[in-house]
Amino acid sequence: MNWMLFLILCAISLGSYFLYFILFRNQIVKLTGLLYQDNNPDGFLAELNSVMSKLFFPKKMHAMMKIDAYLMKGDIEKTKELFNDINSYKIRPGDEFYVRQKEVAFYIELNDEERATQAYQRMRELYDSFKNKSSYEAVMKETEYTYEINLKHSGKYLNEMLDLAKSSGTDFTSGIYYYRAAKCYYFKNESRLCKETLLKAQEKLKGTFYEQLIKDILEKDMKLILTK
């Protein structure tokens, strides 16, 4: 009889675990669909405040998950608030690494050198602490390029940008690297090479925001290259 009760309890526990897992997975799929497929940040935030989401995700997860939604909404003050809130939570280093990546990009876009540098230095500290860096290396390198070129106006990555532009598998990626290379030429006061490289970037980036931006840079004011 005791064995029978034990088996029943095991079956109930196992069933509860699988039910929890299925509901959790379904909630993740629902939230992901709202934000990244439907581009519906308001719907995502409403669902994130539902009873089901509160059951599955602790407050620190809520804070991290809200960041992309408020970035998509363009709500600068709320996004700043969320990045500040993250500092009060103890979160996994791997999770914090990706949060800081978003924070670096956010403050570079606002041209806030102090906050971007703080986030970048914290991201670098986390990266240096990882025993297995392979999963984070590409993200760290891309953030380094963005930070050094867009914020610090460094031209030292010129050759890397040109090599990456030539070896990239897609036109968009190649165009972005050519655009970064053009910025490096600009910082080195190489006006002719900057313009030639901008034309290469423009060809690769047809149909994107960058096509018009490059047109404006070439036809109106070269200083516009500093805006993006």
UniProtKB/TrEMBL annotation:
<protein>
    <recommendedName>
        <fullName>Tetratricopeptide repeat-containing protein</fullName>
    </recommendedName>
</protein>
<keyword id="KW-0812">Transmembrane</keyword>
<keyword id="KW-0472">Membrane</keyword>
<feature type="transmembrane region" description="Helical">
    <location>
        <begin position="6"/>
        <end position="24"/>
    </location>
</feature>
<keyword id="KW-1133">Transmembrane helix</keyword>
